[in-house]
Design brief:
By secondary structure, this protein is α+β, with helices and mostly antiparallel strands. The chain is built from 4 helices and 6 strands; from the N terminus they run αββββαββαα. Strand 3 and strand 4 form a beta hairpin. The radius of gyration is 22 Å and the shape is elongated. The mean pLDDT is 89.
Length: 186
């Protein structure tokens, strides 16, 4: 029984991590408002080693459509500007010699639809991940059954895994609907 509880617990943890990953990815998809998370994941060449942008500069929101990036060292302006351009986030950096500004263009209807498609693609990746976790958990439960776990306990455990799977897939759908409303609202 202890092994069974471990399998169920691990499956739940992995599904929860999948949801957290989806939330992180959805935050990076901009919905028309400036947010420091837009530049999360951009790596800057800092004296030969790759460093996250937020560890070599201060990132702040100036207004609804403008981000300000203030490097901690003035000689980091060019590497930061290159890293933002290379990241292909659809925003051109404006360097004034002391800070870099990112002006987010207003979203067109077509661009909004593309962003919604991107959100749903991320959601589909999360669903696949959760289904894979379910499959692995059920395989492990069946291995336990071969090693002496009763058939009733096996069926109950499989039902618990399925209930957990359904709950997390519903959470993904809820996140996607919320993000779609956020993106499509003008």
């Amino acid at each position: 029984m202890e092994e069974l509880n471990t399998i169920l617990h691990n499956a739940g943890d992995l599904m929860h991590k999948s949801i957290n990953h989806l939330e992180t990815e959805l935050v990076k998809i901009r919905a028309g408002k400036a947010s420091p998370q837009i530049v999360d994941g951009i790596m800057v060449d800092y004296y030969g080693s790759a460093m996250p942008l937020n560890q070599v500069s201060n990132i702040s929101v100036v207004d609804a459509r403008t981000l300000s990036i203030q490097p901690w060292e003035k000689n980091m302006l060019q590497p930061i500007e290159r890293a933002i351009s290379a990241a292909n986030i659809g925003i051109n950096p404006q360097n004034d010699g002391t800070i870099i500004r990112l002006f987010l263009p207003p979203l067109t209807e077509e661009r909004r639809k593309e962003l919604v498609k991107k959100c749903f693609a991320e959601g589909e990746h999360s669903k696949i991940s959760i289904r894979t976790i379910r499959r692995d958990a059920i395989e492990n439960i069946k291995k336990l059954q071969k090693n002496g776990l009763s058939e009733d306990a096996t069926k109950d455990a499989e039902a618990l895994v399925q209930i957990s799977t359904d709950k997390f897939i519903a959470a993904i759908e809820k996140h996607l609907v919320t993000k779609e409303k956020e993106i499509m609202s003008v």
